[in-house]
Amino acid sequence: MPTRKGLIAARMVGFQHVTADVVVFLDAHVEVNKGWLEPLLHRIQQNDKVVAVPNIDILEWETFKYNFIPNNKQQRCGFEFDMKFNWIYTPKLDGIQRKTWADPIDTPVHMGCCLASSRKNFERLGGYDPDLEIWGCENLELSFKTWMCGGRLEVIPCSHIAHMYRTSFPYSWGNSTYIHERNCLRVAEVWMDQYKIFYQHRVSNLQNIISIGDVTERKALRE
């Protein structure tokens, strides 16, 4: 890329060059564990409409120490109406839905740092919204449309990677302001129906100064 465009655009440029049957997206600040890829590929081979994500361990940013999260502490990925990711621990639900610890975990959303999908499925879902800017809310957008357009989003317990939770962004957002809020407003407008108001109310002071752009094509994709 001749100029810096951010995570979302960079992933789509990479996807345009994919020739394999499966595409895997990884953030730069992750460390993969042994045998992390095979369980993701196996699940996609079983069901090519699954977007598969690994268990997320912790990579300490000061020491690069890898902290393994035991499989009996597995969590789903969720979000609040501030459109920010969080963890959901649901041991009782897991006991009902899953027969063994190795069974996939249905998850409402994914964290975004690592995912695997069949190339055809990612194309079917329309990839990432090309009008989302730099970084932010692309994980929720892909999660929403996976579930709402006939797919599945699953944590694969046998796959582990570690993510580094940084204390600040190591890059500039350029001259743009309110990038994350704009992305969230755009995703909410397309995918959240009557629930979009919960986020809109949180940023009501910004709506008159933020343009989310034309969402006609993204709404048509949903239909």
From TrEMBL:
Keywords: Disulfide bond, Transferase
Domain Galactosyltransferase C-terminal: 109-165
Domain of life: Eukaryota
Pfam families per record: Glyco_transf_7C, Glycos_transf_2
Keyword field contains Transferase: yes
Gene Ontology molecular functions: polypeptide N-acetylgalactosaminyltransferase activity
One Gene Ontology cellular component: Golgi apparatus
Protein name, per record: Glycosyltransferase 2-like domain-containing protein
Record bears the keyword Amino-acid biosynthesis: no
Encoding gene (name): ORF202024
BP term (GO), one: protein O-linked glycosylation
